[in-house]
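Support reply, case 0932

Customer input (verbatim):
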Amino acid sequence: MSAIKYRLRELLPSLSEQSKACKDREVRSRLSLIKKIVRSERDVSSACDFQGLGRDSFYSWGKRLLEKKNISALAPLSRKPHRSPRKTKSETEKKIVELRNKKPFQGPERLANAMEDIHAIVIPPSTVYAVLVRNKLISREYR
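Our regenerated output:
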């Protein structure tokens, strides 16, 4: 039997008060799955298969539960990325804003061409437009 299963057997009784007070449906369902697998006489792999849960999920939830010793550890984690690799660089944005301030009546197409000519940065007009909107240099009302 796995070490996590033994450690969870010792921890779960102390979490009974928290489980009664918990309102989150997903946390309660995860906790009940973990309890069923821990109580099972089968090994972790076959118990997870029987319950319809992946072993990886059981182990990740179990580790989080053992680390925090709190039911809130079973809450779903954010799936938001830590960084956006395709985001326009801040230096490029500053250069676009500077160009726009120097030449306020030029649109995204001309600013994109100017960026290529002056700074040797190839950037599509749609990106220039998005930067201008983000920096409130183009408003839909004015357009």
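We compared this against your earlier run and they match. Two observations from our side: The two ends are 68 Å apart (CA to CA). The chain has a mean pLDDT of 91. Please reopen the case if you see a mismatch on your end.
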